[in-house]
Design brief:
By secondary structure, the chain is an alpha+beta fold. The chain is built from 13 helices and 20 strands. The strands form five sheets. It has an eight-stranded mixed sheet, with helices on both faces. A five-stranded mixed sheet has the order 17-16-18-19-20, with helices on both faces. Helix 1 crosses helix 9 and helix 6 packs across helix 7. The longest helix has 22 residues. The two termini are 41 Å apart.
Length: 429
């Protein structure tokens, strides 16, 4: 999948930075999510523990959503022989964005710019029957783009991209339904992430020679994508010049708080690569047929997705994504034992919980320091004696003191539901 979000910078019309606009680079530093180092190289950020927790939660979420949707997950190498990308067409049409080949004895290896060719090889690793189709292969894999240093910025433009990618190998009659299901999966993920699409775009070829020269291929794929959008009831705009080199695509566009637009998710129908790789399946008639390849990315690159989430939520992530979901605050040293027990119980239930004890400052200072944490549990002398915890929510509400097991049940239910709602007056379980 040839998907790289557009770079954007937080500058006003005069070209100056606006410090009041949410900027994931600034917030990422302030919140301790990620960083960079010149010795690692430009466009190669590292993830700090809190940022890694957000990323891990996002990856777990999308893998489980894909599993429920019938996808099987694979791993494939980040290197491929140059010949692989010559067959796929990347070498001819995409070479300027690829790293130069590395000589390995008599062979040349290339850092992959895309996962598509690898998944095509996995498909053709053995004979396939129509009974296996649609075959949905997913991977959260790394790919590399030789971005110029001047275009790099934060997480939105990087040289090593971790892409939530998948390819559905199916019959022609199945292609529209599979692409439509991918759009629905994208919509559900956006709701759970608390983000919105600003528009859908049908990206078509434009002037220039970067596209595969096969007018019939383009006509068929474009007609199918129009059918997908019509059946899904999605309004869209056409965007000449934005297609992948091998076919048209549906781009799901997002906008940052300053209104700057970029592509996060894509759905594509591809006739080109199945032909280039000679992909086949045996039909019910016993003859060999060529499958259609549906490319789709639900959350795009992890880097672009996290950058957008940081800016949209200002670091106050939905509870299921938050680096720390529960902070426990004993009022005094006398309640430290009960607070530590509560943290242990929460961690055992799978929550990301931390202790903020009296050694870290006054209760008020600790509460302010944990202002982005969805749930705070305060334990004073009265609560400790009764097995309770006084609940404070990030939005300022104070539901009151609850028995510790009840508090943990409510939080774990909210997290498991991937709910954007922090609290419900009625227990969920």
């Amino acid at each position: 999948m040839n998907h790289q979000p557009a770079h954007h910078d937080h500058r006003d019309e005069s070209g100056h930075h606006d410090p009041d606009r949410p900027d994931h680079r600034r917030l990422g530093r302030e919140l301790g999510l990620f960083g960079t180092d010149p010795l690692m190289g430009a466009g190669l950020p590292y993830w700090l523990p809190d940022g890694a927790a957000v990323r891990h939660a996002l990856e777990e979420y999308i893998r489980e959503a894909e599993r429920r949707a019938g996808y099987r997950h694979v791993y494939s190498p980040v290197l491929g022989k140059r010949e692989l990308y010559e067959i796929s067409g990347h070498w001819d049409h995409y070479r300027d964005d690829m790293y130069p080949p590395m000589r390995l004895g008599a062979e040349e290896a290339v850092l992959r710019p895309s996962l598509c060719p690898h998944h095509a090889l996995i498909y053709r690793s053995r004979a396939r029957s129509h009974r296996e189709l649609p075959l949905r292969i997913a991977e959260l894999g790394t790919m590399h783009r030789a971005e110029l240093s001047g275009a790099l910025g934060g997480l939105t433009r990087v040289r090593a991209i971790h892409l939530n990618d998948a390819h559905v190998f199916c019959t022609l009659d199945q292609a529209v339904a599979e692409a439509r299901a991918a759009l629905e999966l994208i919509g559900r993920a956006y709701a759970d992430l608390g983000i919105k699409a600003v528009r859908h775009r049908l990206s078509l070829p434009g002037a220039g020679g970067k596209y595969v020269a096969d007018p019939e291929l383009w006509r068929r794929a474009t007609a199918l994508l129009r059918q997908v959008l019509a059946e899904a009831g999605v309004e869209y705009e056409e965007a000449p010049g934005e297609a992948a080199f091998y076919g048209p695509k549906i781009d799901v566009q997002i906008a940052d708080p300053a209104g700057r637009e970029s592509t996060l998710s894509t759905v594509q129908i591809d006739f080109h690569q199945p032909a280039r790789f000679g992909l086949r399946y045996t039909g019910p008639d016993g003859a060999r047929h060529r499958p259609v390849m549906v490319h789709r990315s639900v959350i795009g690159s992890v880097e672009r997705a996290v950058a957008h989430l940081v800016e949209v939520h200002g670091g106050a992530f939905p509870a299921w994504l938050a680096p720390v979901q529960l902070v426990v605050l004993p009022v005094a040293e006398e309640q430290l034992e009960q607070a530590e027990r509560l943290v242990r119980d929460a961690v055992e239930l799978g929550l990301r919980a931390e202790l903020a004890g009296p050694a870290q400052g006054t209760l008020g200072a600790r509460i302010r320091a944990a202002r982005l944490v969805p749930y705070q549990a305060v334990i004073g002398a009265r609560e400790a004696g009764a097995g309770l915890a006084a609940v404070r929510l990030r939005d300022g509400r104070r539901p009151g003191a609850l028995p510790v097991p009840e508090l943990l049940r409510r939080i774990t239910a909210r997290v498991a539901a991937h709910s954007a709602v922090l609290w419900d007056e009625d227990p969920l379980i």
